[in-house]
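Model: Ready when you are.
Researcher: Fold this.
Model:
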Amino acid sequence: MTSPLPRAAGSGQAAHQALADAAQRLDSDPAAALAQAEAILRQSPGLPPAQLIAAQALRRLGQPLAALDRLTALARTQSHIPAVLWELAQTASETGATDQAIAALERLTAQQPAVAGGWFLLGAQLRRAGRDQDGWRADLSGVHAATRDRALLEAAIAMREERFDAAQALLADRDDPPALRLSGEIHWRQGDMTAALALVQRAVDTAPGFDLARDFLVRLLLQTNDLAQALIHAEHLQGSPLRNPGYALLKASVLVRLGDQQGARTIYEALLAAKAEQPQVWQNLGHALKTLGEQAEAVDAYRQAVTHQPTMGEAWWSLANLKTVTLDPADIVAMERALASLEPDAEARQEDIFHLHFSLGKALEDAGDYPAAFDHYDEGNRLRRAMVLHDADAFAAEVAAATRSFTAPFFAARKDGGCPASDPIFIVGLPRAGSTLVEQILSSHSQVEGTMELPDMMAIAGRLQSRVDEGEFADFDAMLRALAPADRTRLGEEYLDRTRIHRQSDKPHFIDKLPNNWQHAGLIHLILPNARIIDARRHPMGCCFSGWKQHFARGQSFTYDLTDIGRYYRTYVEHMAAIDTALPGRVHRVLYERMVADTPGEVARLLDHMGLPFEEECLSFWRNKRAVRTASSEQVRRPIFTDGLDQWRHFAAWLGPLETALGPTLTSWDR
């Protein structure tokens, strides 16, 4: 904090210049500043500006007790001078005189409420005195004061305009909490997550009551899948004096990611009990109820959402996406009316619009109007495809590079290394290929715990790829060959450490059902050689069409174009065939059509491959009450049925691009 130096009343120009010279030397040569201040005091005993400079010099010279004595005396007559109060507060803090520091800062912030630094120092002192809630309020006042900081405002404008260098220049050499948080956001927007996390964490450490910084920190931790830390900070926000309902929603989102659907449900229900007119909360409650298997209650929650907001496309899609629910003619009329009302604001409401197209496609398909259903599916996919990044050529080249690396000689030369744990069971493949069914069957076994689609293997693979992208290695193959046995063991152990938070039992095995992990089957074997890998596969036309008409919340950018999804399926089959050649028998393949035709036989073969004894509960998988988050959550809560196998044939006339993209895979997919 800076404040004009108090000028001696009646002092001459020479005295004033001497004071200014002493003040200027405080940081570079505090001993000289002290000597000069003492010389002035000998000529003008008790002169307040000289007393202040002397105290400031003493503190810088490591003599805070001597400084405190002078400042205490000075403050008796000069407490109207902010610089005196600021120095007294800092000195009292250094000497452990917390109550004195608090008193000085309370007086200072009353005089200068728009200066954020005083509030943040007051917050720290209040917490030191055990007055945590008062400290929290002081931090919040500091954040409010910082909204008037011109440099922060200009930096925020530059950031929004993506003038990142200019924004950072405005924040240079600042380490106050608002500047740290803003700098963290700038780094995040530039894609530097490591720096962003470090800066925002510093802001929270410095001002624990800076709610907006902690809120942002939780969101960053969610993006990096550090769920344990995200939960700690989300729970901390529940104690905020502001009582912001948004913090309860944030905690619920963390609980959902952790698989605690019941905990999230409790939060949503409490929020709705306080205020029912919250369509987003109704929708979130519907998601939790669906995952918990409470289908009737989920339907009611989604209908409450669209009642409060008829144009809420995602809530309509959530209803349509309940595979065992059929939308009626009145629903179709309501959705068509919602679409028409959104047309004037189409550019801003694209998410609602494409969700409504997917929903109408499902409703009209159920009604048997296949041409109209296809039109809506096609429009929904067209809109969504324009909003996602997917380069089919680049993806195919990336997988081809992995295919060339993961060969039989490569693995033969790397028999040592890798974490020997046999805990993980990876279920891989494409979405809508029956992986949730396989998961439900296996998780009904007494030795297997079902979790969810875990992003941790993808994160490890992404970090390895980044070493190539940053130039540490010439290519992916060189990076793989550089991994020593100890490196591979450490990576396997890291995977187990990262996923441990999702394990709620002491069962020896757990399932990771992220379909996209097929891309990393070779890496899985390299770092977890005893983990099981199951490839859940379905007829390419049925699988790809089902994926194309399914809107996925995240992670499946290839599904919104028939050619893209056909190419993706073909790339997947070719890569898994290469893995079979390199590691014969390593991957167990489950064909959905065979599982439907001979469930007992396929289940027995599956368990035998897992090395697990047969258990009858695996054949009664639909009675398993575990939470299921995928699009098939309702389907796996009833016995196996066959009515979904050939739905694509109703649309065969429009699926030429898909057939062309699949090429020879159409006849070789089941090998």
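Researcher: Now this one.
Model:
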Amino acid sequence: MSLRIAARLARRELRGGLRGFRIFLACLALGVAAIAGVGSVRTAIEQGLSDQGAVLLGGDAQAEFTYRFATPEERGWLEEISTDLSEIADFRSMATVTREGETERGLTQVKAVDEAYPLLGQMELDPPQPLSEALAGGDLPGAVMAPVLADRLGLSPGDSFRLGEQEFTLSAVILREPDDAGDGFGLGPRTLVATSALAESGLLAPGSLYETQYRLLLPPGSDLDALKAEAETRYRDSGVRWRDARNGAPGISRFVDRLGRFLVLVGLSGLAVGGIGVSAAVRAYLACKTSVIATLRTLGASRNTIFLTYFLQIGALSRLGIALGLLLGAAIPLVFAPIIASALPVPVVFTVYPGPLLEAALYGLLTALVFTLWPLARTEEVRAATLFRDAMDSARGLPAPRYLIATALLLALLVGVAALFSGDARVTLWTAGGLLAALVILALAASGIRWLAHRAAPAARGRPALRWALGAIGGPRDTAASVVLSLGLGLSVLAAIGQIDGNLRSAISRDLPEVAPSYFFVDIQPNQIDGYLDRLAGDPAVGRVDTAPMLRGVITRINGRPAQEVAGDHWVVRGDRGITYAATPDDRTTVTAGTWWPEDYSGAPQISFAAEEAEELGLSLGDEITVNILGRDITATITSFREVDFSTAGIGFVMTLNPAALAGAPHTFISTVYAEPEAEAQILRDLANAYPNITAIRVRDAIDRVSELLEGISGAVRWGAAATLLTGFLVLIGAAAAGEGARTYEAAVLKTLGASRARILQSFALRSALLGAAAGIVALGAGILGGWAVSVFLMETSFAVVWSSALGIVAGGVVATLLAGLAFAWRPLAARPAQVLRARE
């Protein structure tokens, strides 16, 4: 019976329209829209990757080998199962141009292809021509090159350049490469040549760092799972890596998935900010309904009936807010689809996806329940005799225990859903804990600010505007709490993201180059290493040279079990890894556990493993690691762990073996050179002229490439944080609007006592500025704390406060509250005191 009566009352209440609920709807809709939009874009990219997986991969399937081409038997099986096959060799080299006695060099990622390439898609060249014609060339073999590299080297079609010891003619520049997204991250722009043209280049010598990929077109109806299982069984001992069109660009897929998860968590932060606005709007609305609730109680309505009346009413409005958010979240990606698609290097398929919308709707529903249950529960705690005397303020602070339990369960459910959908429970729990801690800090800060303002008001005697402002902040109303919580949480999220972003930039673009080498040289042949070291030994500008023998291998087994069964998707077992050998540890090697083998050891293979990675993989001393190197399985026993610092961009290997274990294996050397900046160009010229096959990677250029990727990530995260801050500003506007009546009465009293409009406006402005500064300072502390926790514990990087971002947060808080306060100050100032005071009576 009470439910039917409550539904009828709620329906009648809703006839009054949406007045008082605009901020409620905006906060809820904006939070839901952010999550729905991010999810829709992520799903559009995933769908594009799935639909175009074969084109991105360059075939229906691919077999990849390290350091070698497939043997005749291996290639025979690949040809047997396919209808067409293309062979590709991929490696880094230096493109060299000599004109008028001056030589310019640029790092390039070379793709050497056969006549069958590309199996799928089309190369687009400028000037337009078939790829086979472009690579055929004339007197010299032809090549095509990425425009950025051609511009850097000053090359135009018809000009010549050198790769290793081979001259090429630039036939065209690349406008579109169909499988570039599937090739993964490269340190240099692309150059395509024919594999046959590299025979005299010296670039594919034994031990050189290159990979071969065999792209396959399969007969219709081929069983991809069966082929993968057969390939892994057949090539178990030869180190092949198999991939098919279902995961054509795994690196991009992982990146999109992880970025999408993180942005959803940023969206949840926005929903938390919006939740505060929702809660404040419900409290303000119920405070305005005092007379209605009083009348219902007087007429015999039960507490349960009143609670259900407003619960149903708020529920209906929540559904409207969620629906608006879903509409925006689905529409915005469609509206901006051309812009988003042009900015992404992968195909996207934009349409309305139910999955992300359902996920966003669930988030919105749980958020609405968590943040409205508490203020709604307070209606039960007010007696009929006191409802006519500011009922909401007279209710006790905490609702009945059943509502506290329900709120806690809903909050746990919200966090659990977020952990499930994000796929990373650790990050989700950190985010939820950070938001909860920020709310606690802000609530305590709001109480502290009120206490300080109350104590400081008498000291402002002689400054009436300041005294009135402090008196209003320290008064019995919750103005301070509304502003500090609403704006403070949004600024806290923005401050934390600003600190994380700033520290990532600092670690990569400023701190790292101070300790990083100038150049990373690879593919130094064993017969070249002595001459290479002689050139650097006599150069006073060279501070340090490190060298190490270099091979690459794939970890295939751990203690006899397939590596990925033991280690999952850990980066160490995903693909091939660098491997070296050493008779003795050098001066910079710190062995943390176990012992190094004797210098003349020639027994069973032993391995020293990086300590941190070993801990992540769950390895112990005595475990066996099987590594496939050049098609040969080597099973070694872990006899020691050692510290490896990959953050310095120096030489670092996860695995070091004893020399006898790799005896006779063809290999090259890698080297890092630490030199004065002004000497770097001459060092590169001398070494490149003497050894054209050597590839030099300038570390600062590699850092710039990583910084470009981080800029894209930071931009996406900043947009998410901006949505959170916008939600906070809407909540702030709602708080300012809710307090308009109190300010009108305050202005009327002050005018009656002789205060001028200018002084009253000054008081309002001071009040807003002080609250904004307080919210900004508290948010800054919470944001710095959150940024430190994420940087140190999740990203495992150093942390330093980025003061430019920090001061901007405080200034933003002052400006935001000042604008919101002044926007709702004009009507109170214009009101006539007599009318206001008469109405109050």
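Researcher: Key takeaway?
Model: Residues 438-516+700-841 form one domain.
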